[in-house]
């Protein structure tokens, strides 16, 4: 999985499918994590026009195909398992190179598709947390493994 996380964090851009305005949801927390690490991030959510953090408001896009440069964007996915396979198929069609499936966002079919169809498909067993690979738990170590530097910024 180390090769997969290196590939994921080698992308110049990132997006979060399932980004949320609700600070109690993981879609908000994961999106805020990218912002807090000064990574260029785009929220993907077809139901809301923007996601506001305390220090910045980001316009959303409706899908992976609406990203400015999908082939240069790794995406984190925080959607219900029933929706994830469609999200993965759209990302594959758009040319997204790498995906990170957050715990609880996938079933066996979705995880197998992600690992088979992308240069890097991260998810499932592993990582440092008890629920598998999670960018909130494993992201900083993964960035170090990829040689990616970051600086923290406030939300």
Q: Give Rg in angstroms.
A: 14 Å
- Percent of residues in beta strands: 15-25%
Separation, N- and C-terminal Cα atoms: 29 Å
Shape: globular
Going across the biggest sheet, name each strand in turn: 2-1-5-6-7
Biggest sheet overview: 5 strands, parallel
What is the helix fraction of residues, given as a range? 25-40%
Count every helix, treating DSSP H or I runs of 4 or more residues as helices: 5
Q: Spans with pLDDT under 50 lasting ≥5 residues?
A: none
* Helix-strand sequence: HEHEEEEHEHEH
Number of beta strands: 7
Query: Which class best fits the helix and strand makeup?
Result: alpha/beta
Describe the protein's architecture and organization.
This protein has helices spanning 2-9, 26-36, 81-94, 108-117, 135-146; strands at residues 13-17, 41-44, 50-53, 56-59, 73-77, 98-101, 120-122. It is an alpha/beta fold. The strands form two sheets. A five-stranded parallel β-sheet has the order 2-1-5-6-7, with helices on both faces. Strands 3-4 form a two-stranded antiparallel sheet. Helix 3 (81-94) links the parallel strand 5 (73-77) and strand 6. Helix 3 (81-94) runs parallel beside helix 4 (108-117). The mean pLDDT is 95.
């Amino acid at each position: 999985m180390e090769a997969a996380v290196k590939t994921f964090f080698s992308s110049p851009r990132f997006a979060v499918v399932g980004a949320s305005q609700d600070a109690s949801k993981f879609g908000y927390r994961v999106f805020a994590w990218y912002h807090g690490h000064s990574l260029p991030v785009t929220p993907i959510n077809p139901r809301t026009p923007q996601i506001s953090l305390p220090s910045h408001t980001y316009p959303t896009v409706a899908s992976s195909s609406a990203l400015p440069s999908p082939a240069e964007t790794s995406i984190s996915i925080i959607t219900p398992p029933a929706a994830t396979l469609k999200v993965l198929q759209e990302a594959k069609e758009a040319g997204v190179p790498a995906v990170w499936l957050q715990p609880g966002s996938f079933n066996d079919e979705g995880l197998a598709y992600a690992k088979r169809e992308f240069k890097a498909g991260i998810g499932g067993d592993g990582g440092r947390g008890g629920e598998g690979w999670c960018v909130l738990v494993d992201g900083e170590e993964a960035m170090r493994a990829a040689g990616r530097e970051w600086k923290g910024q406030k939300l």
